[in-house]
Amino acid sequence: MGTDRVAALVDSLRARGERITTARRALLTALAEAGDHRTAEELAAEVARVHPEVHRATIYRTLDTLRRLGVVEHTHLGHGPAVYHLADEPHQHLVCEDCGAVAEVPPTVFRPLERALARDYGFAVSSRHFALVGRCRECSQGRDAI
User: Fold this and answer.
1) What's residue 131's pLDDT?
2) pLDDT above 70: residue 95
3) How far apart are CA 94 and CA 35, in angstroms?
4) What's the CATH number of domain 92-145, 1.25.40.10, 3.40.50.300, 3.40.50.11540, 3.30.1490.190?
């Protein structure tokens, strides 16, 4: 699936007139194969393992370009560094402030809130950028048992 996903993303970029560089293809591959969110540092290390000729600064610039093009999203999952994931499977994030577990939820979960904020305050939310922090079910149950 990773190769098909990367091929579809590459085709999409080409159709928009974008160049397909080694760094772009390597980053898309690393993200598709990650199966999880990765920091820029982790992605740079993965690309360097396969393509040592790609400079770390190029990775950071490429991540920013792919984010600007809407192919990659970055999210802040609490206090750590931003993490990146492919934007072709939209989701929101819930982070447990006790154990650090991250749950991905469909964006439809936040639609009623987004509509209410737009209606009541004229505010358009971009909820993908930050995670909602709280307690997961296991930590909430554990806390109740104390």
Assistant:
1) 84
2) yes
3) 17
4) 3.30.1490.190
